[in-house]
Each structure stands twice: as C-alpha cells, then as structure tokens.
Design brief:
Order of helices and strands: EHEHEHEHEHEHHEHHHE
Number of strands: 8
Shape: elongated
Strand order of the largest sheet: 7-5-6-4-1-2-3-8
Number of domains: 2
CATH superfamily of the largest domain: Spore Coat Polysaccharide Biosynthesis Protein SpsA, Chain A
CATH architecture of the largest domain: Alpha-Beta Complex
Largest sheet: 8 strands, mixed
Distance between the termini: 27 Å
CATH class of the largest domain: Alpha Beta
Structural class: alpha/beta
Number of helices: 10
Radius of gyration: 25 Å
C-alpha cells in the first residue's frame, strides 16, 4: 500500500506586515503548489499566517487571501504577544492538522525554496530540521558583529542554540507534541526546540534582503531576546554571581589582613581615593548581582501566575476542521 503524502503547514507569524505580505505571500503559495505538483506533500497542505495583534490592515489582507486562495489560512491573536508567542500559537494550531510544519518569517529573507531540502531530511527520518544561514555577506558590519556577539553570548551563558539559526525550521508532528509539553510562559523557541530531542539535521541557505517594510528586530530587541533566552534556559549567570561573590570575599579578606598589618606597624595613612574606589566597586558588584537576581525573580513571577501564552481571537478555518 502506498504511503500517504504528508500534510505540510507553512507557519508564518506577522506583525504590521501590510506592506510586505503582498510581495511575499505569493512566494509561499507558489512554493506550496510546487511541492504539491511534485508529489511531495498532500493537497491538504496550507500556508498559515498568524497575525500577532497587528495595528494595520495585516489581518484584512490575510482574510482576503484565505477567501481567494484555497491553500491559505489565518489565525489572529487577541493582542500583540510577541514573535515567539505568535509562532508558538501557529505551531499549536497546525499540530492537529499537519504531519509536518515549516516556520519562517514573512519578510521574504528566508529562502522558501530551502523547504525542499528540509522535506528531504524529514523523509530521511529527521523530526527537526534547522534552517541555517550559510553566510552573512548581505549584512553590514554592525549587523554581522552584533549577530556574532548574540550567538556567542548565548553559548557563553549556557543557552543551547544553533549558530546562525533563527526560527526557520521544520518540525514533525512528534516534535510538535514534544514541544507542546513545555509549559513555560517565557518563550525562547531557538533554545527550547533542541531540548525536545529527536533526530535533527541542518539545511544551509543564503538569506536575502527584506523585500518591503521595516525590520521589527532592531539591536535593542536582539539584546532583549538574548536576555530572555539566557534567563529562561540557563542558570549559569547565577553561578557566575556565586563565583564573583566568592572572589570579592577572598579579595576582601586579603585587604583586611593587609590593613591590619599596616595598622600594627604604624604605616596607616587616610586615603579618600582608595576608600571611594572600594566602596564604588563593592556597590557596583552588589547592584549587578541584585539586577541579575531580579531578572530571574521576574521570570518566576511570570511563570507562577500561569497566564495563557496567547489567546486566539479568530481564524479562517472552517468549522469542520479540527
């Protein structure tokens, strides 16, 4: 008996993308049709756009495409929850409908044609396939440097992630079911997916310039994402604080002994500069440690409330679908 073709869902989060969707949506739809024509995926496969509470006409554009194109569906969140939450919402919506999902951004920078190689890895038995940038030649110096620092900092702080991989990835239904068991509110999918386990591989592609609109991930958002990834996945900063505290404590003991020796030999001299340096150093270390502890306490506060990670406002799915 011939094996049934897999149902594939492209999951594409969107936020204020009314300018870029008319340019990129045809690319996704064309790739879906190409894979169907080649007999790689089922005719029930879809392109699923997730509107992350956009303020512009993004949802109206998605609704119009869903009405005009058979292979397009949409999900709208009740409010803006951020890229990671919107992506998770789309993956969980697709989990009950698809055998395999491929997530990517809607700006057209990720080469959608790489999905063919991803499917080949899936057919070979991989549950997770990472889309990895082959190079950063299209980026400027600052973008390349900040990205290298971003991934290096994550690795240094103990957050497991794939270098030069963002959120372009294939996940099988089994991998999606594993991801669904992670209940944390603070999401960093680039670090959570490797924790799911299962057999994985990588597909390399060239990332191009954004086709239209403006990027929603400037440098300060990259820093915030890195901080979320570190504090959500690693306790290494807390261990570093412990080591720093032990180091400062040992230095303090040496300084106390040195001061006592100087006192007993009568060589003490009042020094305002040295006193201020010690006070400022210790005060800075203490504030830094309190700040890092505060980040973790804030994460704990968000987790223990068990608030929903997203709320779906409306979809274009028919009532007959699961």
């Amino acid at each position: 008996m011939a094996q049934a073709l897999p149902v594939l869902y492209f999951v594409i989060p969107c936020y204020d993308e009314e300018k870029v969707l008319p340019c990129t949506a045809p690319l996704f739809i064309e790739q879906l049709q190409r894979l169907q024509t080649a007999g790689r995926i089922s005719s029930a496969s879809r392109v699923l756009f997730v509107d992350d509470g956009s303020k512009d006409s993004t949802w109206a554009c998605i609704e119009r495409m869903a009405a005009e194109q058979e292979g397009v569906e949409g999900v709208r969140l009740s409010r803006n929850r951020g890229h990671q939450n919107a992506l998770l919402a789309g993956l969980m919506q697709a989990k009950e409908r698809a055998d395999v999902t491929i997530s990517l951004d809607c700006d057209g920078q990720d080469d959608v044609r790489a999905s063919e190689a991803m499917l080949a890895e899936y057919e070979a038995g991989c549950d997770v396939v990472y889309g990895v940038r082959a190079s950063r030649q299209a980026d400027g110096w600052f973008k390349r440097t900040s990205a290298r620092a971003f991934y290096g900092f994550l690795r240094l702080m103990g957050a497991d992630s794939v270098y030069n991989h963002a959120d372009y990835r294939l996940l099988s239904r089994r991998a999606l079911e594993g991801l669904a068991q992670f209940g944390e509110v603070n999401l960093f999918l680039r670090g959570m997916v490797p924790l799911v386990g299962y057999r994985s591989s990588s597909v390399y592609y060239e990332r191009t310039e954004r086709l239209a609109g403006e990027s929603h991930y400037p440098f300060h958002k990259m820093l915030a994402l890195a901080l979320d990834g570190i504090t959500s996945l690693s306790v290494k900063p807390l261990k570093w604080i412990t080591g720093l505290g032990m180091g400062v404590f040992c230095i303090s003991l040496v300084m106390i002994l040195w001061s006592m020796v100087r006192h007993f030999i009568g060589a003490t001299v009042s020094g305002w500069s040295s006193l201020m340096c010690v006070v400022l150093f210790l005060g800075g270390v203490q504030l830094l440690c309190v700040g890092v502890l505060g980040e973790y306490i804030g994460k704990i506060y968000a987790e223990v409330k068990h608030r929903p990670r997203y709320i779906v406002s409306e979809t274009t799915f028919s009532k007959e679908e699961p």
